[in-house]
Amino acid sequence: MRVEYEVGYRDRFVFNLTHQFLTPAISGAFLLLPLLVFLIEIRTRPVILSVVSAAIVFLAMWIAQAVFLAIVLITRRSDSVLTQHVLEADEDAIRDSTKFNESRYFWP
Questions:
Q1: What gap in Å lies between CA 52 and CA 46, rounded to an integer?
Q2: Within 13 Å and on the Cβ side, how many CA atoms surround 37?
Q3: Among 2, 11, 88, 96, who pairs with 103 as Cys (CB 3.0-4.6 Å)?
Q4: Beta-sheet pairing, 93-97 with 2-6
Q5: 59-99 pLDDT per residue, tens
């Protein structure tokens, strides 16, 4: 069996951002500032406005993270990742071949 695919910048960006969003430590850190904003706002404003303010801060933080990640991915050289891959399944292993590398993952 043979499968060919190509990894692009968009694929890598979505993969990294999704994993950052699903990581509990990063999600928890990104909730601290909105929680602080909520606790400060709740003293002088109604609850709904405090929640909206905290949500805006949360979204702004994730937008900033996405922009930073995009800049990092664009400025890094990733020729060996952002290339055409060929996966082949044989009787003894799976092979991932690119023009830079060939990896074999043997069956147990």
A1: 10
A2: 19
A3: 96
A4: unpaired
A5: 999 999 999 999 999 888 777 677 788 999 988 899 988 88
CA atoms of 55 and 49, how far apart (whole Å): 10
Phi then psi for 6, rounded to 5 degrees?
-130, 130
Instruction: Take residue 90 and report the two structure tokens written for it.
Output: 């044989």
Evaluate if pTM is beyond 0.85. no
pLDDT tens digits, 3-28: 998 888 898 899 999 999 999 999 99
- C-alpha span between 70 and 88 (Å, rounded): 31
Q: What's the number of CA atoms in the CB half-sphere (13 Å) around residue 84?
A: 4
Angle at 44 between CA 33 and CA 27, to 5 degrees: 15
